[in-house]
Specification:
single chain; 298 residues; alpha+beta; Jelly Rolls; 2 domains; 6-stranded antiparallel sheet; 48% helix; 16% strand; disordered C terminus
Length: 298
């Protein structure tokens, strides 16, 4: 997946990957992360912030700040390269930044990174730095990272993204939320309720709801509906099942609610979504020398 082992390169590691991939998931970690999007557009989730991204989108995430990027315009076959990432552990970097006066501005930026920082207009510069850091080893790699951080600390066009304070929630609780999100991604049709999950986690419904919103930026019912509508979209494109069957397969027990949530999230009804997806498929087949068999053929 383009990931370097720390024992091979030291404390500064580089990562590149496409979409979809198992690496694209709601998660957090101890490392600082500089995350650059080089292809596709979609929705970014950084702490409790949700917003759009496109190529050139550059975000600096602090330690334990949950994050994820979901592409909404990727082709069905996916893309080979979407993300270029640099990760490094915070302790030594912060200590050096505090000891050397030349790095005081970088130290302030590192502290702000706990909220997530989006930099504007820095995409091409960030990609050049990533390529140089990727090619270097040892002290040179560390020096090139400091050079990159120094340039970012001079950028005046940025914004802080998240109000999430990761210190308020225990690591075990955050891990439980991350596992729940992974379960929903694998099978959004599971019968889940906020009351049932809160009981499993040993917390009140109110605390579970606040923790889930703090981690994802939206309510548990809203997140679950989004995941189920996404699954229904794939079934509408890839299967010939009637809408009522897809409604149940995606986890909705009520057709009227399914239609309402689908319209709210996708901006069209399930039937219209299927019609438009088949129009696009028909356009592709018209230009293909060996078109696939029509899934609706009797």
């Amino acid at each position: 997946m383009g990931y370097e082992l720390q024992e091979d390169v030291g404390p500064v590691t580089c990562l590149e990957h496409g979409f979809p991939t198992p690496l694209v998931r709601w998660h957090s970690h101890e490392e600082f992360e500089l995350h650059l999007i080089v292809a596709t557009s979609g929705t970014a989730f950084v702490g409790d912030w949700i917003g759009p991204f496109e190529p050139g989108h550059l975000v600096f995430c602090g330690a334990r700040l949950p994050h994820n990027w979901i592409s909404l315009d990727a082709p069905l076959a996916g893309v080979m390269l979407r993300d270029r990432v640099i990760q490094f552990l915070p302790e030594a970097t912060l200590e050096a930044a505090l000891k050397f006066p030349e790095m005081h501005e970088a130290a302030r930026m590192l502290r702000r990174a706990r909220h997530g920082i989006e930099f504007f207009g820095m995409g091409p510069m960030a990609e050049r730095h990533w390529l140089k850091i990727k090619a270097a080893r040892g002290l040179k790699r560390l020096w090139l990272l400091c050079e990159f951080l120094a340039e970012l600390s001079q950028c005046a066009t940025y914004r802080l993204l998240s109000n999430t304070r990761t210190e308020e929630s225990g690591i075990d609780e955050l891990h439980a939320i991350h596992e729940l999100i992974a379960r929903i991604a694998n099978d959004p049709a599971m019968p889940l309720t906020a009351a049932g999950i809160a009981a499993q986690l040993g917390m009140s419904i109110g605390r579970f709801g606040r923790l889930f919103r703090r981690c994802t930026g939206c309510s548990f019912p809203g997140y679950l509906n989004q995941a189920r509508v996404t699954r229904a979209s794939y079934l509408l494109m890839e299967s010939g099942e009637i809408v009522q069957v897809i409604c149940r397969a995606a986890g909705f027990s009520n057709l009227a609610n399914f239609n309402r949530q689908f319209l709210r999230i996708k901006g069209m009804t399930p039937t219209e979504f299927r019609r438009q997806s088949r129009l696009r498929l028909g356009s592709f087949e018209a230009t293909s020398p060996t078109p696939p068999q029509d899934v609706d053929a009797q």
